[in-house]
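Try this one yourself first.
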């Protein structure tokens, strides 16, 4: 739920006056829900390796080196040419069982570790994640996954391995808000937004968050000359009556939430 300024609340109250319909009219629209896929999870049981970076091929514009993709616990790394190698960040290659640089995650001041933008999920959320004490090519990732509360593995011993790691899929996130949302832990939500989040159909103490924002794929839009982000009315119930006015290019159950509302609250897509 998004709290609205008084002026926009008045717009919500009068929005139904600008709508029109035709008796007997039937409309069908295809709805595409944001994808928040189950992440790959790797289990590595061999000893940490100590590769000589001078003997490896550089990649990632100098931020990493190519290494056997089966021998790293990291997922979402760029592929190197040939032989199943991936571009592993240099701090991970050098770690050899040590820890990455510690930082403070921007939600709740919780502990985190500096992770390279070479990792797909970090790059995807680079505008929301903060640098804190990390290098320019890194962002501070949390030790605990804000969606399911599990250990992300970034704050413990890291490195690449002498043997292959076993791959498997983690559990898929629980969906909510007729599929437009994903359940996540309440303390994973920025503190100033927690009171706005609803449980919907989520289990326990979890709350429902927009899947497109959690997945790092906000859909941008324009309304009345202002830029915005598409948001399902599950998360902005006050705007439900204004859908014909504020939908613009968004989906049939969405409105275009202007960035002058969402931007100050850190809404992805409004940076």
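Now uncover the answer:
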């Amino acid at each position: 739920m998004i709290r609205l300024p008084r002026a926009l609340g008045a717009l919500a109250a009068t929005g139904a006056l600008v709508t029109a319909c035709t008796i007997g009219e039937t409309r069908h629209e295809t709805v595409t829900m944001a994808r928040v896929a189950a992440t790959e999870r790797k289990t590595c049981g061999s000893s940490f390796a100590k590769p000589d970076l001078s003997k490896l091929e550089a990649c990632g514009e100098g931020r990493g080196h190519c290494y056997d993709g089966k021998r790293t616990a990291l997922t979402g790394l760029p592929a190197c040419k040939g032989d199943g190698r991936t571009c592993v960040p240099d701090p991970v290659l050098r770690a050899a069982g040590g820890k990455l640089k510690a930082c403070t995650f921007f939600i709740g001041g919780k502990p985190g570790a500096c992770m390279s933008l070479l990792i797909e999920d970090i790059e995807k959320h680079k505008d929301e994640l903060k640098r804190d004490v990390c290098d320019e090519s890194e962002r501070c990732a949390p030790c605990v996954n804000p969606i399911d509360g599990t250990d992300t593995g970034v704050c413990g011993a890291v490195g690449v391995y002498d043997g292959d790691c076993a791959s498997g899929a983690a559990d898929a996130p629980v969906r909510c808000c007729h599929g437009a949302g994903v359940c996540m832990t309440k303390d994973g939500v920025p503190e100033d937004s927690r009171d706005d989040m609803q449980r919907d159909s989520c289990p326990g103490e979890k709350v429902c968050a927009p899947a497109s924002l959690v997945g790092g794929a906000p859909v941008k839009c324009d309304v009345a000359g202002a830029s915005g982000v598409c948001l399902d009315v599950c998360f902005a119930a006050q705007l439900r009556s204004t859908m014909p006015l504020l939908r613009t290019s968004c989906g049939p159950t969405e409105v275009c939430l202007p960035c002058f509302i969402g931007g100050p609250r850190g809404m992805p897509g409004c940076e």
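Discussion: DSSP finds six helices and 14 strands in the chain. The chain has two domains: 40-169, 175-265.
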